[in-house]
């Protein structure tokens, strides 16, 4: 997830800076944060996969498998080979007694029509299920991003408050240091006068 507090490690050998803040992270801590984020994403995806598998019926899983097979080069290769074998078998003149679908291959056209009529709705069923899953995942992503944005805003507010307190402490320290300097100057002046009086006596 690429949020406003994404870690920028470019140009640093041993440390990195959180964007927007002067906070240094060692390379080890940066890698640890990246690992935690990856583990969190994997746990969410595994939870979504588990829920998807649990709520899927046998007919749904069958539709997914048919759609996966029907939309692959493997299916195209095997189906093309079957069509070529069908046409060659029914076109060779020396095995004419064994022909079951002579040209113009009416039975083949009927089989193709049945295949197209059933395959299209099954693929659409699988696509609708996948769209529902994608919508569910997008809602989870939105919730995660929204939560991360809130946490980033809290961190920013906390850092700004710390910065403001630091400025106030710096000003107070400067005033106290000035008072100490004035006090030291006064003490030094008194010591000088005391030494002068001692010399005169």
From TrEMBL:
The keyword Transmembrane helix applies. Keywords: Coiled coil, Membrane, Transmembrane, Transmembrane helix. Residues 145-197 form a coiled coil. InterPro entries: DUF1003. The keyword Membrane applies. The chain crosses the membrane at residues 66-89, 105-125. It comes from the Bacteria. This is DUF1003 domain-containing protein. The lineage of its organism: Bacteria, Bacillati, Bacillota, Bacilli, Bacillales.
């Amino acid at each position: 997830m690429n949020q406003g507090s994404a870690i920028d490690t470019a140009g640093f050998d041993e440390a990195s800076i959180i964007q927007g803040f002067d906070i240094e992270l060692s390379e080890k801590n940066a890698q640890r944060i990246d690992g935690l984020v990856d583990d969190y994403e994997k746990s969410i995806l595994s939870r979504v996969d588990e829920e998807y598998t649990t709520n899927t019926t046998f007919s749904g899983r069958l539709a997914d498998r048919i759609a996966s097979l029907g939309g692959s080069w493997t299916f195209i290769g095997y189906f093309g080979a079957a069509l070529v074998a069908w046409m060659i078998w029914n076109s060779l003149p020396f095995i004419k007694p064994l022909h079951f679908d002579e040209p113009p291959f009416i039975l083949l056209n009927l089989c193709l029509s049945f295949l197209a009529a059933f395959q299209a709705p099954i693929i659409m069923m699988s696509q609708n299920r996948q769209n529902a899953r994608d919508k569910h995942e997008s809602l989870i992503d939105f919730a995660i991003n929204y939560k991360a944005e809130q946490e980033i805003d809290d961190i920013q507010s906390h850092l700004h408050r710390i910065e403001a307190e630091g400025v106030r402490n710096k000003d107070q320290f400067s005033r106290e240091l000035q008072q100490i300097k004035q006090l030291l100057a006064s003490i030094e002046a008194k010591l000088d006068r005391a030494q002068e009086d001692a010399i005169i006596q």
